[in-house]
Amino acid sequence: THEFNTKLYKGKVSFKAGLFINGEWVDPVDGGDMIDVVNPATGKVITAIPGGGAKDVDIAVKAARKAFKTTWGLKVPGSERGKILNKLAELIEKYGDELAALECLNVGKPFTSTKQLEIPVAVYVSRYFAGWADKIHGKTIETNEKKLAYTRHEPWGVVGAITPWNGPLMIAVVKIAPALATGNTVVLKPSEITPFTALYLADLLNEAGVPPGVVNIINGYGHTVGSAISSHPNVDKITFTGSTLTGRKILKAAAESNLKAVTLELGGKSPTIIFDDVDLEQAIKWAAYGVYYNMGQACVAGSRIYIHEAIYNKFLEGFAKFTEGLTSTTGAPFAEGTQRGPQISKTQFDRVMGYINSGISEGAKVHVGGERFGDEGYFIKPTVFIDAKPSMKIMQEEIFGPVCSIVKFKSEEEVIEWANDTTYGLAANVFTQNSARAIRMSHAIEAGTINVNCSLSMELNVPFGGYKQSGIGRELGQEALDTYTQVKAVHVNL
Ligand code: NAD
What are the positions of the active site (predicted)? Predict the structure, then answer.
């Protein structure tokens, strides 16, 4: 058991560290790496957590398969699966402070905003899919009078879930809840950088009445545990959130092992487009929220900001002032009033600073920020570039930090072309009072989510996913159910 005194809120928080297989805590039988977990606000190691290996994955997959065949899957009525997921939601809510404290300590997310946003998201998503569990219907299809044809939406079986570090609890629940609602069992690998809340969740799953083996959690590295899951011949489906690079490896491993089904939620390079007919103050706030939320570590971060030439100077002045003001609420994640924390790791810190330097060397100008903040941890000042050209790395690649470029545009046609000039297609934000233009833009932009006069929409009953190299398949909403089931057609000769 790991116990931390967070000195704030409820004080002590504890969770067990090990591999969670078949409803029990076990030691790794393979590899047994002890993986350091670092507090990104200080740069100091908090503790080391055991990670598993390929043999552990195999044991977990066997437990998940057994549970699928005996105590879960279609053996259990949907109403019962829903009841358990509702209980899980209740427990996440009850232990919201503890979960938020662990997320804060491990990820550097501010405690207050984690309680206000991430915890309610996890609770809502569990409840939302609990509600679907007894509403998964096939249909009857008229063929001819001598035949009855109908469809069933059956679970895949064992789902491998691999998650990133930028929303560890939220993203784990976004995968576990629909998988369980539809009758699948799960082997989850959290990011080795941020395993705390997934490990805490394990005991809540037991308390909620999730039968042993239905969810197994194996901490570990991507190249060991992650690749063992994605290449396992007995895993039926993978749901992955992370970088496009890793997504490609997972798709390849899935193809070369057993052609398992794959859902990928990958990176982005989302545009924010602001026309000259908007409420400027509101547009500035939304654009800033859209890129600086979670220190820019959001797949949907609106890091390319296109401003109509008629309001460019005014916008830039207001946005720069707003951005400079953010440093006063950036700091220790547990402190009251903190709204932004550090980048997750030294690697990410160096990566983001590398992008800032590449922007400068390619000829863009730093208008605000551009440097580290504070003298410990991995803090970076929110940064605004101007004079960026479409071909520059800062305009093409996902930075995953608090860095944006502001670019002037003249016409709707021009900005549509620029918005689509990337290999990504996750989200876009469009600001205009002209509703016909808003709709034209929404249809012309190649992205899975379009926000009109807002950014970072977190409506969780709406499907989410990427166009182009931002992903395959959809999470959330009713569409998620389709990705966790396969359709069987039954033809009966009458
Ligand atoms: P990452 O791809 O490095 O890691 C994600 C997960 O994959 C981790 O658990 C990691 O251990 C594992 N992994 C690494 N190599 C693997 C391999 N060869 N086989 C199997 N698993 C492997 O991504 P990250 O740095 O943790 O997260 C940041 C990325 O996630 C960003 O690109 C971001 O855009 C993306 N993201 C996307 C969404 C979305 O919904 N589209 C949401 C959040 C984050």
Answer: 265
